[in-house]
């Protein structure tokens, strides 16, 4: 699936098409929007659903936002690919790009949204910058060749009977719980559970019991899928004072991670609250500490690992957050994303 | 007596806190107490077991800001130390206005104002929304933008880097030459992030100082109402005269905003304050003292009507009004308030107990007996319910058990009072057989008390058994701790041995009274 805005990137889409054909990949592309907006959204997400790989090309336009929607069709396509956890190759127009027309640069609200989207895209594993359609073509060819080399070693998806990682769903009420004294909102037309200030989270991880391969979980990241800055009067909330009591005992903090808008700070793990020791991650990977962790789930084991922690939303605004687990099965990297948790903070 | 905090602290080689621009210093006697307690905090570091180290650290005794305020007030009632502290010393609870607490429990203020308020020995409730902890303020260093705290467990404080979810990185530094004594400090910004509220000792002057420094608060209904309620939280409404000013302001603000429900609420609270203030001023024996409050009360009742005002009063307020009126000798007025309390809260013990006292004072012994009997029945039911709850707590939850046991102790104290009144009413009604049984019950309830024996002595005397009466009086004297009461018993004993006998005046028989055989 090749996803991009169309009007400003016609030449570039053609370059991507050529690159795909060059390496023997047949791309799905939507060159003409269907008659209705509803149909446009439906067709585009269906195309992502039918694809094994997502190629996103982004320049300086946010793209068409259907009436009543809050996101462009292009962002919806990316979102769908993320939800499906299919591999994603991202190509961003470089600041050195020559021949950019003023009409191809969006301004106003669209520009702001594009900025937020780009900052999120930059957290993807494969992000490349192109300076011309020819450069884009070369970049796509190179990325596709690498991808195909990996894919040949990778079982397609997770077919029945093969080893895979089971991650508990965040939709369970026990897995996401509010901070002490913080209400959980259910705004009309909004997410069913909107946590305030932050959220306590817990996962159980286990081998799916199928296949013969062990699983190595080597990375866990928190991703700010979306952040909309600012106060929302309709979400105004108060803390329940009777829940904030002087109990005097530090509960075991398994991990704590603070998020400032789109910026996710390094996670901290409390090792021993008695001795006052903790470890701080050195990168976005929660396990990347001075004592790096890799959780191994043997094929014949019944090990269940529970990971608990707290996410604190430290900048005023509305957050969509999810965790991404990176693991390998038979030497092949995979990733799994949690459901999105919605948090609003006005503190 | 007036040693300032700094002298106490310097005696411990603790650096003297710098003066700050925020909240003015309090009366030296209060500052002195703060210094004493801070010295204790510093010296006790590391000596107390950390609750989290016990085998089963949870559940611990949960204490909200208000719970802690009442708990400290119970342990240190300023009323008992009137000479050592200003008459008007009181504990105040302030909370961030982001935190929802009933206005009669804490004064909601902007978080920034908690920084202004923080003073030595204030109890600070800090929370990262996961762990919550009370700690003591040592001093605020405005210049450095840091607040210094003293805590019994400085090495364990969750405000240290990495141990909290709020990103706070407290400094832990040595505070005296003894390396065990440590202080904790956090920045102003960190303080604002984690502070939920604080408890402080001061006089009503604090509220005036606060309003002088934060003039916008003068026009905030919540602040003025909460100020009034905080002052009405003093024992027996002794600070009602200060509370009335704020409650009147709250009423004015609600009326100006056209908020009828809030106005009605403020009016009901103001009514209680004004009535209480009038009765307290009567104690002062200054005829002019109650006048301003009487005028304000007339104005208020003309607008809202006493029935409506009483209908909006809380149980504790109606009882407090009855008590205040009774203490100033306005028994008819006390009765009116307590009638309202009984009518609105017929299943509560306290209004019956208080009305029994008033009825006794008014000579309505039948009425007093009925009320005391009803109060005793409700008391017994209350004790049974609390005992059942006490026994139902999880075996590890000793704090909840102890709390309920303390409540049962409170009910048993009331029971003594009610048994005493029932016996006295029966004696006054000359139902001496029943009175003897009631006195026996009183003695069984409190064997170490002199009251039951004194009652028995009265009964025997009325029955003409002076030898038995003298024997009971001697028992009573042996149990009596109060020298004045002992002297009274001695006088009674002397009168029994020197006919004609003089019966104890409180239980003197009336003409035509019925004496049961």
Task: Summarize this entry quickly.
By secondary structure, chain A is α+β, with helices and mostly antiparallel strands. Helix content of chain A is 21%, strand content 31%. In chain A, helix 1 (10-22) packs parallel to helix 5 (133-153) and helix 2 packs parallel to helix 3.
Q: Say how many strands of chain B there are.
A: 9
| Backbone structural class of chain B | alpha+beta
Cα end-to-end separation of chain B: 61 Å
The computed structural class of chain A is alpha+beta
Q: Number of DSSP strands of chain A?
A: 20
- What are the low-pLDDT stretches of chain A, counting only 5+ consecutive residues below 50? 153-157
The oligomerization state is: heterodimer
Averaging pLDDT over every residue of chain B, what do you get?
Answer: 87
- Overall outline of chain A: globular
**Unreliable stretches of chain B, pLDDT < 50, 5 or more residues?**
501-517
SSE topology sketch:
The complex is a heterodimer of chains A (347) and B (517).
Chain A: E1 2-4, H1 10-22, H2 37-49, E2 54-58, H3 73-84, E3 88-93, H4 109-121, E4 127-130, H5 133-153, E5 165-167, E6 176-177, E7 184-185, E8 194-196, E9 198-207, E10 215-229, E11 239-240, E12 255-260, E13 263-264, E14 268-272, E15 277-280, E16 295-297, E17 304-313, E18 317-329, E19 332-337, E20 341-345
Parallel strand pairs in A: 1-2, 2-3, 3-4, 8-20, 12-17
Antiparallel strand pairs in A: 5-9, 6-9, 7-8, 9-17, 10-16, 10-18, 12-13, 12-14, 14-15, 18-19, 18-20
Helix pairs in contact in A: 1-5, 2-3
Chain B: H1 5-11, H2 28-44, H3 65-75, E1 90-96, E2 99-100, E3 107-109, H4 111-117, E4 123-127, E5 132-141, E6 146-150, E7 171-174, E8 182-187, H5 188-194, E9 195-202, H6 205-213, H7 221-232, H8 240-256, H9 260-283, H10 291-304, H11 306-311, H12 315-327, H13 331-344, H14 349-361, H15 365-392, H16 398-428, H17 432-445, H18 451-462, H19 466-479, H20 483-497
Helix pairs in contact in B: 1-2, 7-8, 7-9, 8-9, 9-10, 9-12, 12-13, 12-14, 13-14, 14-15, 14-16, 15-16, 16-17, 16-18, 17-18, 18-19, 19-20
């Amino acid at each position: 699936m090749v996803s991009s805005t169309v009007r400003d990137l016609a030449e570039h889409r053609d370059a991507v098409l050529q690159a795909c054909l060059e390496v023997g990949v047949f791309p799905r592309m939507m060159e003409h929007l269907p008659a209705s907006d509803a149909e446009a959204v439906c067709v585009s997400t269906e195309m992502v659903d039918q694809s094994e790989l997502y190629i996103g090309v982004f320049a300086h336009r946010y793209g068409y936002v259907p009436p009543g929607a809050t996101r462009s069709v292009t962002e919806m396509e990316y979102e769908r690919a993320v939800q499906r956890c299919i591999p994603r190759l991202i190509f961003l127009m470089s600041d050195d790009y020559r021949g950019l027309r003023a009409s191809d640069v969006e301004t106003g609200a669209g520009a702001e949204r594009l900025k937020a989207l780009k900052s999120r895209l930059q957290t993807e594993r494969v992000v490349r910058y192109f300076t011309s359609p020819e450069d884009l073509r070369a970049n796509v060819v190179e990325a596709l060749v690498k991808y195909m080399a990996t894919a040949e070693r990778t079982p397609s998806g997770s077919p029945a009977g093969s080893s895979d990682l089971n991650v508990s769903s965040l939709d369970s009420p026990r897995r996401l719980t509010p901070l002490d004294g913080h209400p959980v909102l259910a705004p009309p037309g909004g997410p069913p559970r909107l946590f305030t200030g932050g959220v306590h989270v817990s996962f159980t991880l286990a081998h799916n019991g199928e296949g013969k391969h062990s699983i190595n979980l080597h990375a866990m990241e928190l991703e700010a899928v979306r952040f909309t800055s600012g106060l929302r009067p309709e979400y105004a909330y108060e803390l329940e004072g009777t829940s904030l009591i002087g109990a005097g005992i530090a509960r075991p903090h398994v991990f704590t991670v603070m998020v400032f808008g789109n910026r996710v700070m390094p996670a901290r793990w409390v090792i021993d609250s008695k001795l006052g020791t903790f470890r701080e991650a050195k990168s976005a990977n929660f396990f990347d500490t001075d004592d790096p962790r890799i959780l191994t789930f043997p094929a014949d084991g019944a090990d269940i690992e529970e990971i608990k922690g707290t996410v604190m939303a430290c900048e005023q605004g509305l957050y969509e957050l999810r965790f991404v687990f990176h693991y390998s099965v038979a030497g092949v990297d995979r990733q799994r994303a949690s459901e999105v948790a919605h948090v609003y903070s006005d503190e | 007596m007036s040693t300032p905090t700094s002298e106490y602290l310097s005696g411990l080689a603790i650096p003297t806190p710098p003066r700050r621009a925020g909240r003015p210093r309090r009366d030296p006697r209060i500052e002195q107490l703060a210094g004493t307690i801070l010295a204790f905090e510093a010296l006790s570091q590391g000596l107390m077991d950390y609750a989290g180290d016990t085998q089963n650290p949870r559940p611990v005794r949960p204490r909200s800001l208000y719970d802690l305020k009442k708990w400290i007030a119970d342990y240190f009632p300023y009323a008992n130390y009137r000479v050592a502290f200003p008459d008007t010393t009181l504990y105040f609870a302030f909370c961030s206005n982001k935190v929802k607490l009933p206005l009669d429990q804490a004064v909601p203020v902007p978080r920034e104002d908690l920084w202004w308020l923080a003073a030595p020995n204030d109890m600070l409730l800090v929370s990262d929304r996961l762990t919550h902890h009370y700690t003591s303020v040592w001093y605020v260093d405005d210049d450095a933008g840091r607040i210094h705290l003293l805590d019994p467990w400085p090495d364990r404080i969750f405000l240290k880097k990495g141990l909290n979810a709020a990103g706070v990185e407290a400094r832990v530094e040595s505070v005296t030459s003894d390396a065990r004594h440590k202080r904790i400090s956090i920045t102003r910004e960190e303080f604002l992030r984690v502070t939920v509220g604080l408890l402080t000792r001061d006089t009503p002057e604090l509220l005036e100082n606060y309003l002088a420094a934060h003039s916008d608060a003068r026009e905030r209904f919540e602040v003025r109402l909460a100020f009034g309620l905080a002052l009405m939280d003093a024992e027996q409404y002794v600070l009602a005269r200060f509370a009335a000013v704020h409650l009147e302001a709250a009423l004015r603000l609600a009326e100006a905003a056209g908020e009828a429900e809030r106005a009605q609420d403020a009016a009901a609270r103001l009514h209680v304050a004004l009535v209480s203030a009038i009765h307290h001023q009567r104690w002062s024996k200054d005829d002019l003292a109650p006048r301003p409050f009487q005028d304000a009360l007339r104005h208020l009742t003309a607008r809202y009507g006493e029935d409506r005002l009483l209908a909006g009063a809380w149980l504790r307020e109606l009882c407090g009004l009855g008590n205040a009126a009774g203490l100033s000798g306005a028994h008819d007025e006390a009765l009116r308030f307590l009638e309202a309390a009984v009518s609105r809260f017929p299943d509560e013990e306290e209004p019956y107990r208080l009305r029994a006292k008033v009825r006794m004072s008014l000579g309505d012994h039948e009425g007093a007996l009925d009320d005391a009997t009803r109060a005793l029945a409700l008391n017994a039911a209350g004790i049974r319910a609390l005992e059942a709850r006490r026994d139902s707590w999880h075996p590890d939850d000793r704090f909840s058990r102890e709390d309920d046991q303390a409540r049962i102790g409170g009910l048993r104290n009331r029971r003594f009072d009610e048994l005493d009144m029932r016996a006295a009413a029966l004696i006054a009604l000359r139902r001496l057989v029943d009175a003897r049984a009631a006195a026996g019950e009183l003695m069984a309830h409190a064997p170490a008390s002199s009251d039951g024996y004194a009652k028995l002595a009265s009964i025997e005397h009325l029955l003409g058994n002076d030898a038995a009466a003298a024997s009971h009086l001697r028992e009573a004297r042996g149990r009596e701790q109060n020298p004045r009461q002992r002297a009274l018993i001695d006088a009674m004993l002397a009168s029994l041995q020197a006919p004609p006998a003089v019966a104890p005046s409180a239980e003197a028989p009336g003409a035509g009274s019925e004496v049961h055989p």
